[in-house]
Amino acid sequence: MNTAPLPESLPHDPWPVAHAGFRPEGRFRLKAEDFQVTEVLPYEPEGQGHHFLLRVRKVGVNTDRVAKDLARLAGCRPRDVGYAGLKDRHAVAVQHFTVPAGKVDNDPAAWAGQSWCVEAAERAQKKLKRGVLEGNRFRLRLHLSPAGREVAAVRFERVLRAGVPNYFGPQRFGRDGGNLDGARKLFAGQEKPDRRIRGLYLSAARSYLFNLVAAARVEAGSWERLLEGEYAVFPDVNSGFVVADPAREAARVAAGDLLPSGPLPGEDGAGPNGAAAEVEGRVLATEADLVAGLRGEGVKAHRRALRVMPGEGEAEADEAGLWISFRLPAGSFATSVVREVIREPIS
Asked: With the C-alpha atoms ordered 262, 91, 171, 3, is the resulting torsion angle positive or negative?
């Protein structure tokens, strides 16, 4: 098992894939319309309250830009605009925002800006907070040769049955790994970023450490099964437990109802013991400065599933390649599915 640390600036797609066999070469996201994502909220708006819940369609524009436009139209401060999470700029994205209703004197359903428009507006009781998201539905176009489409469709079916490693996607680390480099400088006292940038750096460091552990488990063939002492988590709730007898839980693991987990390092927090803890310890020791830096910044430790099971999957070929559709829980990345289906050429 190779647990050597990767370079500070991440190379193209460094993490090992889980599913063996030939991956056809294909291209992904040649244009915004190739990547379509729709947020799924865990609740419906109440139809009354001091906020408007807006369903917004945006193309080629980032979440922060839309939030600033909405603040201007609502007559509020940008920080008063709520949203559950960031959505890629280079995509067709449907996401939700809330704005205070107090100064709104027209119909928000008619609001629009450069590259975005409001599709629906309903009254809601509360501001939408970060992380309040059930999941996302994706529809993605993979550009492939005719022969490649057939192989990719077979691989996608395998992904739907077995799941994929729950890697954090490359956007978490910034351009050329810049957020991770920033975290190293932060921990070394070489940089003092503002609160927002600090959050990006801390997130990148935790995500990188998780991916290192996930990669080691993939290489060892244990990413989808429980080790002795495993801290297993449930897919739909933020809880888990240390497994006393992995064999007894094998059926739930096979069905995706119980998942092995990896670390989001920090202070305190639950974790594995035995063989699972030994694997994590060996990997995290290669990046001891990052682990210590997160603890020094007061970040709380957490767990994340090593395996994610895409749902509601469909594949449809066309003249340019293959459309794949699927649903993922909040916090999981569509790129983790795509990379198990195709191999993108290194530009």
From this structure: positive
